Amino acid sequence: MKKIRTRFAPSPTGYLHIGSLRTALFNYLFAKQNNGEFILRIEDTDQQRLVEGAADALLETLESLGLRPDGKIEHQSNRLALYEKAANKLISKGLAYPCFCSSERLDRLRQEQQANKQVPKYDGHCRHLSKDEVAQRLKSVGDKHVVRFKIPKDQIVQAKDIVYGKISVKTEDLDDFVLIKTDNYPTYHLANIVDDYTMGISHVIRGEEWLPSLPKHILLYQALGYPLPEFVHLPLLLNPDKSKLSKRQGDVAVEDFIKKGYLPEALLNYVALLGWNPGTDQELFLINQLIEQFSLEKINKAGAVFDVNKLNWFNAEYIRRIISEAGERYQQLIKQSQGYLQGHEDGAEDALKLFGSRINHLSEISELSAFLFKLPAYTADMLVFKKSDSEKTDQGLNLSLGSLAKLNDKDWTLENLNQTLEDIAGKHGLTPGDIFWPVRVALSGQEKSPSPSEILEVLGKEESLNRIKLALNKLK
RNA sequence: GGCCCCAUCGUCUAGUGGUUAGGACACUAGGUUUUCAUCCUAGCAACCGGAGUUCGAUUCUCCGUGGGGUCACCA
Hints:
It is built from 20 helices and 12 strands. It has helices at residues 18-33, 54-64, 80-92, 103-115, 131-139, 188-198, 214-224, 254-260, 264-272, 287-293, 308-325, 328-338, 348-355, 365-368, 370-373, 390-406, 414-427, 432-444, 452-459, 461-475, and strands at residues 5-8, 37-42, 74-75, 96-99, 146-149, 156-161, 165-170, 178-180, 203-207, 230-234, 237-238, 304-305. The termini are far apart. 34% of the residues are buried. The model has no long low-confidence stretch (mean pLDDT 95). The protein folds into 4 domains: 5-77 and 237-305, Rossmann fold (3-Layer(aba) Sandwich), CATH 3.40.50; 79-234, 3-Layer(aba) Sandwich (Rossmann fold); 326-373; 380-475, Arc Repressor Mutant, subunit A. The strands form 5 sheets. Strands 1-2-3 form a 3-stranded parallel beta sheet. A 3-stranded antiparallel beta sheet has the order 4-5-8. It has a two-stranded antiparallel ribbon with strand order 6-7. By secondary structure, the protein is mainly alpha-helical. Strand 2, helix 2 and strand 3 (74-75) form a beta-alpha-beta unit. Helix content is 46%, strand content 10%. It binds one RNA strand through helix 4, strand 7, helix 6, strand 12 and helix 11.
């Protein structure tokens, strides 16, 4: 059986788009599932849009998510000779031709066609130039040209896609598209096909936006005498308004999600379920389970709206799980959390313990845990619980202060602390709220926070007693 | 506009020629509780329309409608 080889082929123009991540993931999953290879190919044939360092950043992001490419990373800019050779072969077979039309002429043509409500299309101006004429033009210095593919007349192109099925298009609807640009770089269409062939790609898995150019590609494969790979077009990722997912309507850069503290587990898991499903009720998948269960047949056709809400849920879920498992991954999480606690890195584990069940992404702990590191500001009436009065509050705080002071460091444990506070309420006929509420506000300065015993434990005896004393002063 | 693709709760989706159309997120209510979050329970909520095929269509076919993609010397 033929070796499975997939590729992810981004152009290095900036960040990694979340939709591209999904494409990369599906390529990765399918390759790994079949013991195949997942190849990264940098499509840097547009010298204008190329961004310095973007290719390295792309690779780094992929690897940080665990999607490590196999083999050498290819850059199309290093393979120009290959494309030129392919183009020349087509010209000599009469399947492509040099075109000397200026971009001004093409612009004009397009404008006229649009004004006349015609479909913008190359008019074939250079398609029928005589051999002599071509030779002469080629010789004259400064006469720039491109190479165009000669779309055959009156044919129907049949294409087959694993997701979308059979698609057929009349060649009269196709344009003599450019293969080689005036700067001698190939266009996407040529480079892509030459590369997929020479690199032995068995399955071309890419976004649905490529579906309209599939017939062109099929024609090119045939002209070049290459066998066809399998094609798998993935349904688009959508904005809430159903348009193609884009910046402007929210984050789309994977790097930004990572910066905010979204975990690789959550990012991959969520994105895997956009346009694919396992056919069961299972929703939580680690990468190995995805590799095991992924299948091209379960990819669906309709676009999927990218919903940050659900991503948040996955991320929160993984954070909670990692914390409760308290394993190696938990240590990594603590380390990562330190990045959000400048100057208070030591508090990362405490912060995570306190707020792990309260955050969607790690960067949120920065704000939530701020009160741990500085004295809270609040008003005296915040200390008073519901219909209780400040006298009761004063009593509750005093009793708490007394009991807590008696606990030695060794007994300063979550369980003891909680018991201590409960006992006070019980012994003095107070409601739990009369004790827990003011102590909690005294410690945190907030009306919403983790429970006082948790905060007491984290703050330690000295700091805790200090804060309660300050609260008592506030009441006066 | 030409060409192409698509259509189940608000969102991601399962599903079948006969189902109480299932799950998850979000939302609402209740429980636990000192607040918030977690956790538990319950609830709300969908087959775009028409015609045809059929004993019977959400499911198959056609048409319509709606949405999207694409029409570069960008990928």
